[in-house]
Amino acid sequence: MPCEPHRDHFAPDARDDAWIPSIAARSWVIVTRDFAIKRRPNEREAWSTADAIVVMIRGEKLSAEDMAKLLLAAHAQGRLDNYIAKRTPPMMIYLTSDGQLRIHLGGERRGGRKK
Predict the structure, then answer these.
(1) Can you tell me the distance from the alpha carbon of 27 to that of 71, in angstroms, rounded to the nearest whole number?
(2) Is 4 inside a domain boundary?
(3) How many angstroms separate the CA atoms of 20 and 12, rounded?
(4) What whole-number percentage of the chain has pLDDT above 70?
(5) 3-class secondary-structure state, position 6
(6) E strand or H helix at 30
(7) How confident is the model at residue 90 (pLDDT cuts 50, 70, 90)?
(8) How many CA atoms, within 13 angstroms, populate the side-chain half-sphere of residue 35?
(9) Angle, vertex CA 12, rays to CA 48 and CA 39, nearest 5
(10) Within a domain: residue 31?
(11) What is the 3-state secondary structure (H, E, C) of 35-94?
(12) Is residue 83 part of a domain?
């Protein structure tokens, strides 16, 4: 799974509402621990309008290495890719410290709700 750091494409002080549409236009998945992205009106509008896919890694005191392991495990097992493929953007997905995936916002199931 190719990953590219924010700093390789944007200035450290780039406003979230400026870079989020650019990332979404590339069909990249945004991975973050910034939980405020869902509450700040300008950022929420940015990811929603841009049809962004946001994965928020949840867990207290996770190191960068722990977060990478969680993300890679979810990807390697195909769970994250399948979870995303079954839903329409925009979406915000929680990836918990025990590896569980859960839709937090958006992400309607393709073809409607499963009954």
Answers:
(1) 17
(2) no
(3) 14
(4) 95
(5) helix
(6) strand 29-32
(7) very high
(8) 8
(9) 30
(10) yes
(11) HHHHCCHHHHHHHHHCCCEEEEECCCCCCHHHHHHHHHHHHHCCHHHHHHHCECCCEEEE
(12) no
- In this structure, the dihedral spanned by the alpha carbons of residues 71, 94, 91 and 34, taken in order and rounded to 10 degrees, is -90
CA distances from 85 to 63, 80, 113 (A): 28, 9, 14
Q: Please give the structure tokens belonging to residue 76.
A: 């390697």
Task: Report whether 25 contacts 8 (CB < 8 A).
Answer: no
CA distance 67 to 65: 5
Which range marks the domain in which residue 23 is found?
15-62+89-106
Q: How confident is the model at residue 84 (pLDDT cuts 50, 70, 90)?
A: very high
Count: domains in the chain: 1
98, pLDDT greater than 80: yes
pLDDT in tens, 41-82: 888 899 999 999 999 999 888 888 898 899 999 988 899 999
Residue 25: pLDDT above 90? yes
In a domain, 114, yes or no: no
